[in-house]
Specification:
Blueprint lengths: L2 H8 L6 E2 L4 E2 L5 E5 L25 H12 L5 E5 L10 H10 L3 E7 L6 H9 L4 E7 L3 H8 L4 H16 L6 E8 L7 H11 L2 E6 L7 H18 L10 E3 L1 H4 E4 L4 E3 L12 E2 L5 H5 L2 H8 L2 E4 L2 E4 L17 E3 H5 L7
Parallel strand pairs: 3-4, 3-10, 4-5, 5-6, 6-7, 7-8
Antiparallel strand pairs: 1-2, 9-15, 10-11, 11-12, 13-14
Helix pairs in contact: 3-4, 4-6
Length: 340
């Protein structure tokens, strides 16, 4: 069950979508919050490097007021991510504590693991974190240093931090997984990636880079063999299940440190900015004409019922749609359930 489907199934409000106007009936259930643009790594492929220039971080008091407003209108879960690296946010301890005390589910925490201290790990576990995602990038210190442009000794520190988290989580209540990138140098290391995760007790995600131009000979001669390996090592996805759709437009929101609001983490081009919470109430942005026009592109109705479709702005193989934001169409619409 994905991040979003669990929230919607457990929600007492049915259905999520008002089919008369194709708009959500309530505020966002799931908020992805980018705490800071600061980062302690320098990955060569990072598409967020331009954000480092302003070195912005969320104003803490404004952030907790925003979360409180969203919670009062149905927010159930938060993902702490970035942009930058969440663990270097100046008030990371305070924000985790605030989320825990306000009975908001901490659905996911994304980190490169460099500064995943024992104190932060204990806080995340006490907050009942559901998923810890480690952007490990590579299975050994040599490749990791090439990708992150950091001292290779830091790789061992990350492995230690991961092991410490797992050891502290005595009830194994948090799912921990590592993600790795595929480029011309790491493609032969897929078995090593898998072996490392097996050794540490981690789930695994291996992916190509959207922001990297692969060489033509790599695409032609290497990718087919890599794809075969991926099918062997990667978990099964939702595939072509026509009943699985993206629930993000009606149930999720992404907010950056500068206050800009986006509909999801896969659409972060400036044309998808729906508003800015420093200048408008988050709920007025959630219900604004631009946001509702964006949603209508996903939804149609004909004589056979509700039709979900992907607009041109979305990739049919979007890992967000097929991953944490996937939801059964029946659950999104609560078909067969007349509760109000």
């Amino acid at each position: 069950m994905t991040d979003l489907s669990k929230l919607l199934i457990d929600s007492p409000y049915n259905p999520i979508i008002d089919l008369n106007n194709k708009q959500p009936r309530f505020g966002p259930r799931y908020a992805e919050i980018h705490l800071t643009n600061l980062c302690n790594s320098h990955c060569y492929f990072c598409n967020q490097i331009s954000l480092r220039e302003n070195k912005g971080s969320f104003d803490y008091d404004f952030l907790i007021n925003t979360i409180s407003t969203l919670k009062g209108n149905g927010l159930k879960a938060i993902r702490l991510s970035g942009g930058g690296e969440p663990t270097v946010y100046p008030k990371i301890h305070q924000i985790i504590e605030f989320i825990g005390k306000n009975t908001i589910s901490l659905s996911r925490f994304d980190t490169n693991g460099i500064d995943l201290s024992c104190t932060i790990s204990k806080q995340l576990i006490e907050c009942k974190l559901k998923v810890l995602h480690i952007s490990l990038q590579a299975p050994n210190s040599f490749q990791w240093a090439r990708i992150t442009q950091k001292n290779p000794k830091a790789f061992d520190k990350i492995l230690y931090n991961i092991s410490t988290f797992i050891e502290l989580d005595t009830n194994r209540s948090t799912k921990v997984y590592a993600s790795f990138i595929l480029d011309e140098n790491t493609s032969k290391s897929i078995p090593e990636m898998y072996d490392l995760c097996q050794k540490l007790g981690l789930g695994i995600n291996i992916h190509y880079l959207n922001c990297h131009t692969y060489k033509k000979d790599y695409k032609k001669n290497v990718m087919p063999d890599v794809d075969k390996l991926l099918r062997e090592y990667q978990p099964e996805s939702n595939g072509d299940d026509k009943n699985i759709v993206c629930g993000a437009p009606w149930a999720a929101i992404l907010v950056k440190p500068n206050g800009d609001v986006y509909p999801c983490c896969a659409l972060q081009d400036k044309k998808f900015i729906m508003g800015n919470i420093y200048y408008a109430d988050p709920l007025s942005i959630w219900n604004c004409p631009k946001y509702n026009d964006f949603r209508r592109a996903f939804l149609g109705i004909n004589t056979s019922g509700v039709i979900f479709r992907l607009p041109d702005s979305c990739d049919n193989n979007c890992p967000v749609m097929k991953g944490m934001m996937s939801i059964s169409k029946n659950h999104l619409l609560m078909i067969g359930n007349n509760n109000s």
